[in-house]
What we know:
The chain is about 0% helix and about 45% strand. By secondary structure, it is mainly beta. The chain folds into two domains: about 100 residues; about 250 residues, Methylamine Dehydrogenase, Chain H, CATH 2.130.10.30.
Amino acid sequence: MPTTLLTALLFITTLVSASANRLTDAPTHSTQVAVGSYHVLTIKNGALYGWGDNTQGQLGLGAVSMEYAPVRIGTDNKWKMVAAANFHSLAIKENGTLWAWGWGNSHEMGLGQATSKTLVPLQVGKDTNWMSVSTAPDNSVALKKDGSLWVWGNNVNAALGVGKTANSSVYIPTRVGKDNDWVKATASQHMILAIKKDGSLWIWGRRGGSSIFGVPAAPDVVTSPQMLGADKDWNHIYVHNRHGFASVVAVKNNGTCWGWGSNKSGKLGPGHKEDIATPVALPLPTPVASMAIDNNHSIVVKGDGSLWHAGSFLKNIAVKSNEINQSVSFIPLRIDGKWAAVYKGMNFTLLLDQQGQFWTFGTNDKGQLGNGYKNSSYTPTKVAFP
Length: 386
């Protein structure tokens, strides 16, 4: 059985309290969305669409041309869930099958084949009981309907939790332990975070430049799932990890949000710019419906549909000319509209409004804005669905 990591974190619930944020298992809309570094995938009425960077086949179209507006991927209308990373994509169909396409040099697609590139969706194994999937630049994690947890990809220093493997890679989905009570799992570069049925939060992987394990003196590598503290009321996880500099926001059942790791430019909104070694309650505006984090910046959607942000507001952020360009606490992001969810790629942002329409802003060198044009836009433009 996995062991508890640092019992000193027993005091976590007695730290600074925050007003209850309500952040559910998923945004309150039904649209499935996955945002990679420069490409976007979404499911509408069971059909799969994509746009943006396709230089490695990550859109699954059978070609490598970039797409500046949404295009349908294949003819199947039974897609259920999507996940995306730098150059590859994963998806689950309604029949429980798992599919992968694009390029990966760490076997993060799980296809177990000599070639690491495929331009169209290929089925991963033969199992038909996949429930959810998450992927990162070098690893992937998925849950089956029986509550088991499976990983594949980069396994340097046995960081995936399945022991040492040949060539430090896991080529196909491989089970972590024997537990059948996993309910949520998130892949991040070099690490995995997951929640069990009892609400406990677990983490393992390879440490980078920030305290990703939520404790100040964690080892460089945690090779098996380790429980974070003793709390058993965790509900959801948001994570951003770039070259090992991870930022994590974990949400409890009562809606409070707890953050740790890289706090560059104050992007976690704690009121300062210092990195956070152990989970602390974040004074987020309440209630919260969705959140997205990138290198220097975070955006949250409140339950009333308004946007708030913290960190450094670079060119990809649609900031009014009379607003400050950095804040270590969350402040309003004054973009008109009623919003349901927010997602971030590399230097661009995607918003979903409460009517189910997509809007994007930021750089557009690879078509990631999906508005049919090649120019960047620093005010939201509507995605040009056919």
